[in-house]
Predict the 3D structure of the following.
Amino acid sequence: MSRAFILLLDSFGLGATPDAGKFGDTGANTFGHIAAWAAGQGKPMSLPNLERLGLAAAARQASGEWAEGFALREGFTGAYGAARERSTGKDTQSGHWEIAGVPVEFDWGYFPREVPSFPAELTDRLQELTGIPGYLGNCHASGTEIINRFGDQHVAEGKIIVYTSGDSVMQIAAHEEHFGLERLYAVCEAAFELVKPYNIGRVIARPFLGENGNYRRTSNRHDYAVPPPSPTLLDHVKDAGGEVIGLGKISDIFATRGISRVVKGADNMALFDALLKVGGEAGDGSLTFVNFVDFDQSFGHRRDIAGYSNALHELDARLPEFIAAMKDGDLAVITADHGCDPSWPGSDHTREHIPMIFFGPGLKAQQLPISETFSDIGATLAKHLGVQPTLNGTSLL
Ligand SMILES: O=P(O)(O)O[C@H]1O[C@H](CO)[C@@H](O)[C@H]1O
Ligand SMILES: [Mn+2]
Ligand SMILES: [Mn+2]
């Protein structure tokens, strides 16, 4: 029996890549800066389970130095390394697709750092099609900050909050009750058609609740994403008859391509519960792919170092449950899709190495070379499952 699991910690970077300067990210280091912050608080991080698999050693390989509070230890159990990205962007879709064998070598479109960020011909047409009374924001923004800035006006006037970021994205925020969730989804569907000529990766619905200047986003986020340009590992597994189970936002990121089953979870720990349940059910030849979104959405973009650190400790504490439930023939990898250094200026992602930490019953503990593409992960899992090799990447095991 062969099964594969990808545990993707969204935005968990291990230090800037050689090309980070092109992104203004020289010196960024998601893990390293969280560890330094924790040590500075007099409470160094303690991630014994991730560390035993090789996380700290992989981070050292990527960044050239030990994260504070971590040092050389004996007795690794994982096959650990780090990878650099070949895709031109540092966004979620590029990262995930590249892991699955399809780097994004074309340039995404981006909306400029101007106000308004969105071209009038796009917003005028969207207004015509949907009947909305107008727009608020129309700029680069952090999604939690902008709903508090414009929430009251949105509720009073019915105008939608539109914003973007360093990602190739149009985000639309609206109140679930005053505006209506289904209505927001309908506006996003119309917008998704209209952004196509601009080569935009995603439109994201960002529903929120609350009143009087005090608003919070709900878990009813929905992403409308373009599909990967070529078949990915997910398609190969599904075509070979294996079940492909996408947990969290995986199905959205792949625009449902290659997905057999979708399982949602409100937060990292709910997703971990779901992973354990799915792990008990997944059959021979299956691929289970989970995206732990809180690292990025709740802590990285929010520049919340303490929150990010806490989330890493929470995940580390639960890893033994997953490891204990692994069966002979299972291969899992802990990885990420880009960085989002919570100590870095702004609120965007950071161009960093990602961890590649393989583990499973009988796997030989070893250090892997630094990979020049995230696709080595997909290639490794394709070989493990005995399915068609990914278009890019070389198996590491
Ligand atoms: O600030 P919020 O809305 O969380 O936005 C973040 O989430 C989006 C998708 O990952 C990105 O565009 C990023 O900027
Ligand atoms: Mn991401
Ligand atoms: Mn993000």
Q: What stands out?
A: Residues 120-225 form a domain with the Alpha-Beta Plaits fold (CATH 3.30.70.1250). The first strand starts at residue 3 and ends at 9. Residues 92, 296, 301, 340, 349 surround manganese (II) ion (ligand 3) (CB under 6 Å). The chain has 13 helices and 14 strands.
